[in-house]
Amino acid sequence: MTTRRDILSGAAALGTLSFLPGAHAQSTRFSAMALQMRCDAVNQDRNRRDARARMMASIGRMRAQIATSKAFLRTFNGTELKLVVVPEYFMTGFPLGESRAEWRDKAAIDVDGAEYEAMAAIAESQNLYLCVNAYETDTNFPELYFQANVIFAPNGEQILRYRRMISLYTPSPFDVWDQYLDIYGYDAVFPVVRTEVGVLATIASEEILYPEIARMHAMKGAEVFLHPTSEVGSTELTPKHISKRARALENMAYVISANSAEIVGTPIPAASTDAMSKVVDWNGRVLAEAQSGESLNANAVLDLDGLRGARARTGMTNLMSRQPWAAYAPAYEAATGAEPNALAEGAIDDRAAALARQRDIIERLQALGAN
């Protein structure tokens, strides 16, 4: 039986490797897809039972869409679909009026619960790697919940779990930092996993805006960033759109970013979150992008040999090889920002408390002339 520590730590340790081509098994070309799907939010449900039924229905719809997408792509481009990313909180939506305690009860699933089992079955039945995003509980922190990206392997096993580090309203590992490190170790904070479809890592939603999150994974060898997101759609460049291309270019990695087609079941206009799903290559070029509505169009054939060749070549374009890491370390060490262990007592707080902590940070940065 795979333990929680195995899930959180083991895959990360296996993923630490060299950028040298010889460190990798021979790769093949394959299709990857950011599945743009509608979110049927559980905010409309009055109790846990109804919310869980709605969540399982969303998983069932995802199963059908992945199966038909795989069959279509096989006939369309003759390449096997081996990697799928679905949008952020695809089966729940986000808290909207619920307290943190209410949201935990209604929308946060168990790491070994029925919902994850159903998602694992999709990966196994379709013989592919599947990246999902969900709110989840942890028995080590019984009053909290986390937002997690989880990757399932074609055998149905959970091979990577990344818990969102930067979140204004959702508890993060940083909020219980000392205890989290004691339980899971630092390797579990920024995990990567080596697979037949590349060295995989994940980025959660707005964390694409923070270069450090992607960089921590890239320094451990990540080749493909899987990015579940739920973001405002626009015909213009958005901060997240720009950031997806920047994270790909500066880390010489693919980005597979799946956005919600829309979010139904809340007072917010449903199509406010739509389009923008895309596949970006290591030069920051958008290979495929979906427009409005549920779509498989954000799919592309990945060329890992091409990526690894670019990382192995000398010259100015090999950005990762030219980084003077040691020059940055003292500045980060001396920096003042968010303090760890905000929820060290284990009790969940409310949005007002989260905003109060943010105001304190802003005031400290202003006093230092850093903001």
List its salient traits.
six-stranded mixed beta sheet; 17% strand; disordered N terminus; globular; single chain; 371 residues; 10 helices; alpha/beta
Short description:
By secondary structure, the protein is α/β, with parallel strands linked by helices.
Kindly describe this structure.
By secondary structure, the protein is of the alpha/beta class. 35% of the residues lie in helices and 17% in strands. The chain has helices at residues 4-15, 48-77, 100-107, 114-126, 177-184, 211-218, 239-251, 304-312, 325-334, 351-367; strands at 30-34, 39-40, 81-85, 129-136, 146-152, 158-163, 193-195, 198-202, 224-228, 254-258, 263-264, 278-280, 286-289, 299-302. Strand 8, helix 6 (211-218) and strand 9 (224-228) form a beta-alpha-beta unit. The protein starts with a helix and ends with a helix.
